[in-house]
TrEMBL record:
One of its GO terms (biological process) is response to amino acid. The keyword DNA-binding applies. Residues 2-63 form the HTH asnC-type domain. One of its GO terms (cellular component) is cytosol. SMART domains: HTH_ASNC. GO terms for molecular function: sequence-specific DNA binding. This is Lrp/AsnC family transcriptional regulator. Coiled coil: none annotated. Pfam families: AsnC_trans_reg (PF01037), HTH_AsnC-type (PF13404). Keywords: DNA-binding, Transcription, Transcription regulation. It comes from Aureimonas fodinaquatilis.
Amino acid sequence: MLDATDLRILRAMQDDPEGSVESIGRAAGLSHTPCWRRIRRMQAEGILGERRYRINEKAIGLGVTVMTMIKLSRQDEVALEAFEKAAHEMRDIVDCYLVTGRYDFVLTILTRDTESFETLLKTKLSKLPHIAEMNSTVVLRKAKSGGPLPI
């Protein structure tokens, strides 16, 4: 269970992802050792995941983001797991969400350009298991992304 001090630590980590344990502790009102212990506990409990750098996708040639909605031909456990496993193995798919409503999955796909997406669609996406319907939308501009969690 998270207490108020844990939440202060998490807020401080979101505000300064590369901050030292000392600076995070100061922001949370703790000294180094108690702060470090709490961070380690939250890592062990799965509250804190792995650290990654956020790379500017356009700067490395991935200028097109596509949101693709997928409806499967059936929604049983075998079909859902088969689709998730296949989507997980595709590096072009950066996010895969199981959702409610008309579609079963929403994918976030990054690619160089629309021609690259067309090739991906024809050669890989259309071959994912159990697809009954697919609807893709090209993102014009990212208005907000990766904001801090509302804690």
